[in-house]
């Protein structure tokens, strides 16, 4: 197998007396969709937050393309090409879809007006229409505040935002949790398209069938450690559930 | 007259209910045109309704007191009285757009007025005949005093994480106290005559006071910055979801400091305008300036939790209390009726904002 694109080694993280991660390892390879699964409290979200820069690990190392990196803020992660779709979406509900897509990376007017801080709203709206179109999202009123959109559309805006800017890895924390059947299919289609663009996608999901349908590889966390890794081919839901709940020996423990 | 009614509507009551009335039908097709969508969007905001209220009030007072209310003199008086408040309300709009509040503006203005006037009176000299150098120094001191208090507010809110309500309540007391200590509670009555002349100057056929022109420029600049620039976009984004703004890489703390600094600086500028209009420091005249500014911003449709704000709304929100005050005075009622009416309008504005939010969250 190729070298990992993103690798975490021996990550420890505790909140007070709660040990969320206890020496957790994790790998993402180029051009793959890897599902990160585990029971509630296994440490999936904490791991993603550490890799995305919103939380700092107490201990452990992170490597991107073999280089040791320190991700001390989400902004640094973004500059490294790592984007995250958060469970709580992290959109500005009073702004419209285009403003959210370009938040923090606004297109400025050319020339003097741009230097004075004037936004090129038309260019951003055009870009947003294109980005949303690629996801099959039909934002009928592109100037409507995100808060006025349905849950599915909001999710699509959040996904589109990450996909548009990621160059290496996209983390998706339960991206289809709030979605209907059609939007779920679209988001999953998008995740596949991310991979086809040469970007790795990390998907947190509780939906085992969804995981088997779309992931190339599956990594299982339990009690703050990685306990198993599976190739999608040949693995069954029973095996996954058993790994999540402690039915198999811990990796490396034997 | 016969009414042509589609037969389906009669047979199917649901179709009849879903069928729009002719007016609504026309409105719907109008709202899909380019101009129509702008109008429709305008009326989905508070500002448009508040403007309707303002026009109705002016019409009503003009109707009840014909030839007294909408006179050139009365309109000009109202405009001058509103000018200073408008300048602080513009800064307050940005602060409240971030989800914060600046209670200190009125007293920062008082402080800036005192320091500015005292600088111009330095060494006990009478500055009445001073030249532009002294005037510009006074302006710089007023702006600098406001800026300093604004930066302090910003640091307290953004870095020290003191809630804005308490941080600015604290600086309110400090600015007030210092202003009284520095002035011994005595108004400073000697102001360079150049400043006084500016305060009473009029342009455009001797009709429009300079202070009104200056306040309008501040408001227009504020409106442009809030709606069309990155600074305004970040201001609204922070008020809408601070965490999202932070995750998007926006330096939230620094931006908040800039917004509070701007509010303070505008309060300093308003102090200078006040000196120009009244040619004295008017120490006892600022007790309600902060609450009036906040009321104007809220009446203008700025959301109390941030994220939604327009300077146009604020401008209308500043005018409504003034129109009420002037109208009640002309009609011979006690001017305190204004306070009653403004209170009611304020509650109504917040109530409609809540309604809109609740409707939105139900989707």
Overview of this structure, please?
The complex is a heterodimer of chains A (254) and B (363). Chain A is of the alpha/beta class and 254 residues long. Chain A is globular, with a radius of gyration of 19 Å. Chain A contains nine helices and ten strands. The longest helix of chain A has 16 residues, at 181-196. Chain A has a domain at 6-92 and 161-244: Rossmann fold. Chain A starts with 5 loop residues before the first strand and ends in a 10-residue tail after the last helix. Chain A has helices at residues 44-52, 74-79, 97-101, 111-115, 121-134, 151-165, 181-196, 208-214, 237-244, and strands at residues 6-15, 18-28, 33-38, 59-64, 67-69, 82-85, 169-173, 200-204, 217-222, 225-231. Chain B has 363 residues and is mostly helical. Chain B has a single domain, classed as ABC transporter involved in vitamin B12 uptake, BtuC (Orthogonal Bundle), CATH 1.10.3470. Chain B has helices spanning 7-11, 13-18, 22-31, 34-43, 46-64, 72-97, 105-120, 132-158, 164-183, 193-200, 210-228, 230-240, 242-247, 252-278, 289-299, 311-330, 336-361; strands at 202-203, 208-209. In chain B, strands 1-2 form a two-stranded antiparallel sheet. The longest helix of chain B has 27 residues, at 132-158. The radius of gyration of chain B is 24 Å and the shape is globular. Chain B starts with 6 loop residues before the first helix and ends with a helix. Residues 1-17 of chain B have low confidence and may be disordered. The chains are: A alpha/beta (254), B mainly alpha (363). At the A-B interface, helix 2 of A face helix 12 and helix 13 of B.
């Amino acid at each position: 197998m190729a070298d990992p694109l993103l690798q975490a080694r021996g990550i420890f993280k505790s909140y007070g007396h709660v040990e969320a991660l206890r020496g957790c390892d994790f790998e993402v390879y180029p051009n793959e969709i890897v599902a990160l699964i585990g029971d509630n409290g296994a440490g999936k979200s904490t791991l993603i937050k550490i890799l995305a820069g919103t939380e700092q690990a107490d201990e452990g190392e992170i490597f991107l393309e073999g280089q040791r990196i320190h991700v001390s803020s989400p902004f640094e992660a973004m500059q490294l090409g790592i984007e995250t779709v958060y469970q709580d979406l992290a959109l500005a509900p009073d702004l419209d879809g285009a403003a959210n897509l370009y938040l923090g990376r606004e297109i400025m007017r050319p020339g003097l007006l741009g230097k004075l801080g004037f936004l090129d709203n038309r260019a951003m709206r055009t870009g947003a229409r294109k980005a949303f179109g690629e996801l099959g999202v039909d934002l009928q009123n592109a100037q409507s505040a995100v808060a006025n959109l349905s849950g599915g559309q909001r999710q699509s805006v959040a996904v589109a935002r990450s996909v548009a800017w990621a160059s290496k890895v996209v983390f998706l924390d339960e991206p289809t949790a709030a979605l209907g059947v059609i939007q779920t299919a679209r988001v999953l289609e998008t995740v596949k398209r991310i991979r086809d663009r040469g970007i790795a996608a990390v998907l947190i999901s509780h939906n085992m069938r969804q995981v088997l349908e779309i992931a190339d590889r599956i990594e299982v966390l339990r009690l703050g450690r990685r306990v198993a890794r599976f190739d999608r081919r040949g693995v069954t839901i029973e095996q996954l559930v058993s790994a999540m709940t402690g039915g198999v020996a811990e990796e490396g423990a034997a | 007259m016969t009414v042509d009614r589609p037969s389906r509507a009669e047979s199917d009551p649901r179709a009849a209910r879903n069928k729009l009335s002719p007016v609504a039908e026309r409105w719907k097709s109008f709202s899909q045109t380019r101009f129509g969508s702008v109008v429709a969007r305008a009326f989905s905001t508070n500002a448009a309704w508040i403007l309707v209220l303002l026009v109705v009030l002016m019409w009503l007072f003009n109707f009840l007191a014909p030839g007294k209310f909408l006179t050139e003199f009365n309109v000009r008086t109202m405009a001058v009285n509103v000018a200073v408040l408008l300048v602080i309300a513009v800064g307050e709009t940005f602060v409240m757009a971030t989800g914060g509040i600046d209670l200190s503006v009125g007293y920062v203005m008082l402080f800036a007025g005192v320091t500015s006037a005292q600088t111009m009176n330095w060494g006990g000299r009478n500055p009445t005949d001073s030249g532009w150098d002294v005037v510009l120094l006074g302006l710089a001191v007023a702006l600098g005093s406001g800026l300093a208090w604004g930066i302090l507010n910003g640091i307290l809110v953004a870095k020290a994480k003191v809630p804005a309500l308490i941080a600015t309540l604290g600086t309110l007391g400090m600015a007030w106290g210092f202003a009284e200590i520095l002035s011994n509670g005595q108004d400073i009555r000697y102001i360079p005559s150049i400043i006084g002349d500016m305060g009473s100057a009029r342009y455009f056929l001797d009709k429009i006071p300079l202070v009104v022109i200056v306040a309008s420029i501040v408001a227009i600049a504020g409106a442009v910055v809030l709606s069309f620039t990155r600074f305004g976009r970040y201001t609204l984004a922070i008020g809408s979801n601070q965490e999202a703004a932070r995750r998007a890489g926006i330096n939230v703390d620094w931006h908040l400091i800039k917004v509070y600094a701007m509010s303070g600086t505008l309060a300093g500028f308003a102090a200078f305008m006040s000196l120009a209009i009244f040619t004295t420091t008017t120490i006892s005249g600022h007790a309600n300036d902060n609450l009036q500014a906040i009321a104007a911003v809220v009446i203008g449709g700025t959301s109390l939790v941030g994220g939604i704000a327009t300077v146009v709304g604020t401008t209308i929100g500043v005018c409504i209390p003034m129109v009420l005050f002037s109208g009640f005075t002309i009609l011979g009622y006690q001017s305190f009726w204004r306070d009653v009416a403004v209170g009611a309008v304020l509650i109504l504005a917040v109530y409609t904002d809540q309604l809109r939010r609740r409707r939105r969250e139900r989707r």
